[in-house]
């Protein structure tokens, strides 16, 4: 059995390019007792993977050069010597960027039976969805009376944050980089959406959308978005820091906003977090989110690239704003 | 009875100058029933007052132009028509920047009888001391195993933060702007002190002082100090933001550090706070601090300017690093 894999060919500086990736075929050995063979059907590309392409002081180790990359994927067991995972089982796994792989089951989870399309477990009801959930509830301690500003509001995490905050009773303002995405985010229920590429001054636009000020800024972007949010946040505002995508590909680190003193004068809380620390909430989250999806209260937008050899293009597309909602690769 | 007062003559841009202040004498009316006449003996100058000299979106209203300024002071009741405050009572008040004033008692507090010099109630056992206390315990949730970095470590708040953290069992690193201050902070028990004016790279100096990383950064300064702290903080590190004195007099707001993404990757919590929100802890604080002072476990350094007409010079001196410990004016 052959496995088609994408390896890290070189570490990017600035925006990743096709040259950083290479397509490789490897031969898999025969299954041993306790092992299963998985055929991946979907894989996820996520902005955080950019951090793993370089050597840094981050929360997860970097990808190895000339080794297969990793990431969330959904697959089907096609051969099994493990009773827990019979042939035909649908599993989520962290062995993306490859068509097939062998596992002893330790890194597999059977998909919960909540009646949603399997690829949703890479998005709205998977890691990105849980990231939005814990950012709002655990980190920002969301209250129904809050006005919430979500940057990258049409992205995998942002689009879920918008919808969860609306379901919680909040007023929600999103920011996006195109009118098309603005329409999509409005359709998800956002009270106002700012196309940041079209406004002269993001602070003014945000003030106009939220004359009462914002209470929570769901931080996906950094830079000018953080600056505007600090300006418009109300006293005791909270900033769950999910990511700062503006910084991921900067060849020279960009200076931060010049108004950080507002953290003091407005008594703000800025808190970085990482979803791995909150996996104990996945059960509760899946139950609630599964219900919301089947009731039509949460919708899931997906942008799909076909074929493993287009995975690098899909990944690079994340930083070019090519995805609406969750960016996926169908294998 | 005349009151000698310092009024705000104009609002500063950049560093305050003598021209922003003017010395005024006003005649006080006769006491009404329930009122007392206070003679101030000590007044405090604090960095936060810079924020009140301009019109901004801060937590306290700005000083009025051509009106007397305000601030913490200690005084003695010299005439009384209020049984709660008989003649001779020592009181803390917020009517600094003047020699005498009339009060109905609502803004006065009798000095607690803990046997320390009265001017300490403007410093180590007053607002600056409580600011250090709540920043470490309430905001940063200090643990004895933490390594703590305190900027402006010889200042009124910083010097208390250093000593409290040591008493709690922590390893403490301070930063100061002169060798003389470094000696003073070492004498307070700091494990290492960095003279930031003498090091080429603050991050390197901090890493050398804390090869194990820091867990808490007590933020008084901003700018390069925040950048270095972010670099050296351990995962789940905490930054209580007491102030950012580097920004107070900037004529053009300075960009923030270029490594804010570390808030996310290290899962840091950056939390602004203001001591007014924690006055309910003052009783517990005074009891503990009074004991520490009388036992010689906490020392208090004070820099004293004599005479109300030198108050502006004392205040400006805060931003020129002229104080060791608490900057006071003896009236």
From TrEMBL, chains A, B:
UniProt cross-references to Gene3D superfamilies, sorted A to Z: Medium-chain alcohol dehydrogenases, catalytic domain (3.90.180.10), NAD(P)-binding Rossmann-like Domain (3.40.50.720)
SUPFAM superfamilies xref list: GroES-like, NAD(P)-binding Rossmann-fold domains
UniProt cross-references to SMART domains, sorted A to Z: PKS_ER
Annotated ranges, domain Enoyl reductase (ER): 14-329
Keyword presence, Oxidoreductase: yes
Keywords, ordered alphabetically: Oxidoreductase
Keyword Oxidoreductase: yes
Top-rank taxon, per record: Bacteria
Alphabetized PANTHER family for the sequence: PROSTAGLANDIN REDUCTASE, PROSTAGLANDIN REDUCTASE 1
Identification of the protein by name: NADP-dependent oxidoreductase
């Amino acid at each position: 059995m052959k496995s088609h894999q994408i390896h890290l060919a070189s570490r990017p500086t600035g925006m990743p390019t096709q040259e950083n990736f290479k397509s490789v075929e490897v031969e898999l050995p025969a299954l041993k007792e306790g092992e299963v063979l998985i055929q991946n059907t979907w894989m996820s590309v996520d902005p955080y993977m950019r951090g793993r392409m370089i050597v840094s002081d981050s929360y997860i180790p970097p990808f190895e050069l000339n080794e297969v990359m990793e990431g969330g994927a959904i697959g089907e067991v096609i051969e099994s010597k493990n009773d827990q995972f019979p042939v035909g089982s649908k599993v989520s796994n962290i062995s993306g960027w490859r068509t097939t792989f062998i596992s002893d089951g330790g890194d597999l989870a059977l998909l919960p039976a909540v009646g949603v399309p399997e690829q949703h477990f890479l998005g709205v009801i998977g890691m990105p969805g849980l990231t939005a959930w814990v950012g709002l509830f655990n980190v920002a301690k969301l209250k129904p009376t809050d006005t919430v500003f979500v940057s990258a509001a049409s992205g995998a995490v942002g689009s879920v944050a918008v919808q969860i905050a609306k379901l919680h009773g909040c007023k929600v303002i999103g920011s996006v980089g195109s009118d098309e995405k603005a329409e999509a985010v409005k359709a998800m229920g956002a009270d106002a959406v700012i196309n940041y590429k079209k406004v002269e001054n993001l602070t003014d636009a945000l003030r106009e959308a939220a004359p009462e000020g914002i209470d929570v800024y769901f931080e996906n972007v950094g830079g000018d978005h953080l600056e505007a949010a600090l300006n418009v946040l109300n006293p005791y505002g909270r900033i769950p820091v999910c990511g700062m995508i503006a910084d991921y590909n900067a060849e020279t680190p960009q200076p931060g906003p010049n108004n950080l003193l507002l953290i003091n004068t407005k008594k703000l809380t800025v808190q970085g977090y990482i979803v791995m620390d909150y996996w104990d909430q996945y059960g509760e989250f899946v139950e609630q989110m599964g219900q919301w999806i089947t009731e039509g209260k949460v919708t899931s937008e997906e942008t799909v690239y076909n074929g493993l050899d287009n995975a690098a293009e899909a990944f690079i597309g994340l930083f070019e704003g090519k995805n609406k909602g969750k960016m996926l690769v169908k294998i």
